[in-house]
């Protein structure tokens, strides 16, 4: 049984610092999206991410986390999350999930996107659309006074009504001075589940949606999570703050620059 949640409340000033961390991640994901092409090694993606983190004096949050060896998680097709960058080259027709975490002035930012490479075909196009929509549906529920389960339920409903499934083994999380804080943020569940959201809570919402069954397992590298049936999986994530009137997405590009989530 889990111990009761200890959910940290951030001040307005702290949330502004977290916006700096989040917007750095957004900028790096944009750079990756623009650079990615067939033939690019996943280690090249990692280098691009790491160079851009270090260039502004931030630290890669993932590198060294429980021994993870890289600054980005790069997960292709049936790889759900936590793919370790290496010599594998991105191919035309693949979907590439890139998850980036940074620490800037002591505050974490965490965001992920799944990037189509070349002609990915009908099923993967729909999978990306639905996973991004599921994230939007979850974010749309965020507001002080609402139970966390409303977010989970909205994401699950969005994915399953489109014929896809929600990964059960991995969830979103609170975030702040630590990468993983309370509460856990499942992408499935009932509206009556979880704590009541309060102004100043900051959470990372991150649906992982599979084209086939929700079963996953870890590869022998100890990190990479893959679908059990070999079908593709997509992952989108934003760091968001709970406000009195709704939600403030922190992992966006600065105002005036086009973002991939409304
Ligand atoms: Mg992440
Ligand atoms: Mg996360």
Q: Which descriptors would you attach to this protein?
A:
globular; single chain; Creatine Amidinohydrolase; 262 residues; binds magnesium ion
CATH topological fold name: Creatine Amidinohydrolase
Instruction: Order the strands across the largest sheet as they lie in space.
Output: 8-7-9-14-15
Q: State Rg.
A: 17 Å
CATH superfamily: Creatinase/methionine aminopeptidase superfamily
Number of strands: 15
State the name of the first-level CATH class. Answer: Alpha Beta
By helix and strand content, what is the structural category?
alpha+beta
Estimated helix fraction? 25-40%
Would you write up a description of this structure?
The chain is α+β, with helices and mostly antiparallel strands and about 260 residues long. The protein has one domain: Alpha-Beta Complex (Creatine Amidinohydrolase), CATH 3.90.230.10. Helices cover about 25% and strands about 25% of the residues. The protein has four helices and 15 strands. The protein has helices at about 10-35, 40-55, 120-140, 150-160, and strands at about 60, 70-75, 80, 95-105, 105-115, 165, 170-175, 180-185, 200-205, 210, 215-220, 225, 235, 240, 245-250. The strands form four sheets. A five-stranded antiparallel β-sheet has the order 8-7-9-14-15. Strands 1, 2, 4 and 5 form a four-stranded antiparallel β-sheet that branches. β4 (about 95-105) and β5 form a beta hairpin. α1 (about 10-35) packs antiparallel against α2 (about 40-55) and α3 (about 120-140) packs antiparallel against α4 (about 150-160). It is globular. The mean pLDDT is about 95. Bound molecules: magnesium ion (2 copies).
